[in-house]
Design a protein that fits this description.
two-stranded antiparallel sheet; 2 domains; about 425 residues; 12-stranded mixed beta sheet
Length: about 425
């Protein structure tokens, strides 16, 4: 034990006697490790933020919107607009074998909402009860729309968080009444805040039964009879999302009389495909960061090899004297091996500590939508420290072996 303590004391004395050289070597390694962990942390922030945003929309959601169908296939110059209808939704619900669930949505943003305390003018959506099985629509109080609300065409409304705060500031909402273009609706439920910070678009909404919306607030314009804003649907299983999309396209093309193979005719959003695409991007990013990390560790190892070779050269006479006084091959080898390992490990831990501190400071700042604050990824930190350990052993092995193999007489002759 005492022998090991003596070796560490000698190592610290040698490093301190060459402060600038040791500092620059350690700084390079710490900078590389800290940068690597910070980059991985930022990437993980983007990944978790994207997952969070998609989770706040719902699970396995797909959308189909009104589009433009070319009269001549592939020529959008000849395209004519078409609208989605309630019949399109019914056909998708009953005739698409790979669609598990679907919901029509009728949306308008030009309706005025008035309570006894305030007024607003945000989006009102006419939906069916199954929407909360597709989209993420948690309740803070009250209840969601049900089948009786639809069949009896009840004038009821569920308020998003921001709409509730605007219309009823600091007051209870359940059982209160809201006027939508002078038609009275009873508040049966309200939702918690969705999203982070100032990201309020999911909260600036009110939900009423679809038949009530279609009767009282249909989409304006000619040829809009029985039309809807869009359709949300889910595939039977996640892996069948492309088959579900194909089923929906065939039904829409058949109902509106155009070729289903012309992809330019459809306007949709597949959150499953987007999630996979983002996952692929992050996988490529992780591979790139892994390559950067390997280069960083390689450069650090080269720096350690360089400083250790210089140390062996400078201390040739010292090594010869120690061997002449009885130092063994193993003790000399252990001394230089520990010195290289200590340089890399301490530098790596300093880099990891600085990166952790910086990420902790950034964690207190609310990021924009789709981005969570960076955080230390434990697996990356373990891999970095493990790789540094290997790099330290490899970097110190050759110089240590060179020092251990020096013959005492030849070493003492060196100037």
């Amino acid at each position: 034990m005492r022998n090991v303590l003596d070796i560490f004391a000698q190592i610290f004395r040698n490093l301190w006697s060459h402060k600038l050289r040791s500092f620059l070597t350690m700084f390079g390694i710490a900078w590389g490790v800290g940068s690597l962990l910070l980059l991985v942390g930022v990437g993980e922030g983007f990944r978790s933020g994207n997952k969070r945003e998609l989770a706040e929309l719902g699970r396995d959601i797909m959308f189909i919107f009104p589009g433009r169908a070319p009269v001549v296939q592939g020529s959008m110059n000849s395209a004519r607009p078409y609208l989605l209808t309630y019949e399109d939704y019914l056909d998708i619900r009953t005739q698409a074998p790979h669609v598990r669930n679907a919901c029509p949505v009728l949306s308008r943003s030009d309706l005025k909402q008035v309570s006894e305390f305030a007024s607003a003018g945000i989006e009102i959506m006419g939906v069916e009860p199954q929407l909360n099985q597709i989209s993420f629509l948690p309740l803070k109080e009250g209840r969601w729309l049900n089948d009786m609300d639809l069949s009896q065409r009840r004038n009821v409304i569920v308020l998003g968080n921001e709409l509730a705060k605007t219309l009823f500031p600091g007051r209870p909402t359940l059982g209160a009444f809201v006027l939508l273009n002078s038609i009275r609706f009873e508040v049966i439920g309200s939702m918690p805040h969705l999203g982070r910070g100032d990201d309020t678009w999911l909260n600036m909404r009110g939900y009423i039964p679809f038949p009530v919306m279609a009767t009282n607030f249909p989409i304006k314009g000619e040829n809009h009879q029985n039309s809807i804003s869009f359709i949300e649907y889910q595939p039977s299983v996640t892996a069948e999302h492309l088959l579900a999309e194909s089923d929906v396209h065939k039904i829409i093309a058949r109902n509106h009389r155009f070729d289903a193979s012309d992809q330019n005719a459809f306007d949709g959003w597949d959150t499953i495909k987007e999630s996979k695409m983002v996952g692929t991007i992050f996988d490529v990013m992780n591979m790139f960061l892994g390559a950067v990390g390997m280069v960083t560790l390689a450069l650090g190892a080269i720096g350690v090899i360089n400083i250790m070779l210089v140390a062996v050269t400078e201390r040739t006479r010292e090594i010869g004297l120690r061997k002449a006084l009885g130092a063994t091959h193993r003790s000399i080898l252990l001394h230089f091996l520990l010195e290289g390992l200590l340089l890399t490990l301490v530098s790596g831990l300093i880099g990891m500590g600085l990166a952790s501190g910086l990420m902790a400071m950034m964690g207190k700042v609310q990021g924009p939508g789709g981005f969570d604050p960076p955080k230390l990824v434990p697996m990356s930190a373990l891999l970095a420290i493990g790789s540094l350990t290997v790099a330290g052993v490899v970097a110190g092995l050759y110089p240590a072996r060179k020092a251990a193999l020096l013959q005492p007489v030849e070493a003492l002759r060196q100037e």
